[in-house]
Structure formats: structure tokens, C-alpha cells
Amino acid sequence: MYLPRLQFDNLSLMALTHLHRIVGMTPSLSSENITRYLEQGMAPFEAAIKGAREIGFTVLTISISLVVVFIPLLLRGIVGRLFGNSP
């Protein structure tokens, strides 16, 4: 926290947002996908494997987009000053 000059509040905000997105969005995406295969008549284990395999890229892109959103907090521009990260 010292090197990028982040305040504890900003770091907590970033952590809570990541937690909400990854813990909240990922299970709902996977359960909807697995349910779709179950409704098509696939066996439960096969549906789980196929459904989980299909959402891997989606989970990766959600994680990357969340990191990109918070990059301005680390910069020393107007947005950084707005959040109190620059002198």
C-alpha cells in the first residue's frame, strides 16, 4: 500500500468489488450453464464438466476487466488525485 500510495479505503473498495464479482457472478454463470445442459437431457456429471469448461474464458475476462477498471487509481493523473493517491 505504501509504494502505490493507496489509502486503506481504496484498497478495501477494490477488494470488495473483486470479491462480489468473482464470488457472485461465477457461480451464477456456471449454474445457469450446467442447468441448460441438464434440461437438454445430459447426465449430471457430463453437464457439469461441459458447462464448467465453457465458462472458463468468461471468468478470465471478468477478472481482467475488473483489474483494468481500477488501474486509474494507481496513476498520478486527475483520477488519482480525485481518490487522494497523488500529492
Overall description:
This protein has helices at residues 8-39, 44-54, 56-69, 78-82. It is an all-alpha fold and 87 residues long. The two termini are 15 Å apart. The mean pLDDT is 76.
Q: What's the total number of strands?
A: 0
Topology pattern, helix = H, strand = E: HHHH
Which range best describes the helical content: under 10%, 10-25%, 25-40%, 40-55%, 55-70% or over 70%?
A: over 70%
- The low-pLDDT segments are none
Computed CA radius of gyration, to the nearest angstrom: 19 Å
List the helices and strands and how they pair.
Blueprint: H1 8-39, H2 44-54, H3 56-69, H4 78-82
Helix pairs in contact: 1-2, 1-3
Short description:
It is built from 4 helices and no strands. With 87 residues, it is mainly α.
List keywords for this structure.
single chain, 87 residues, mainly alpha, 4 helices, 71% helix, rod-shaped
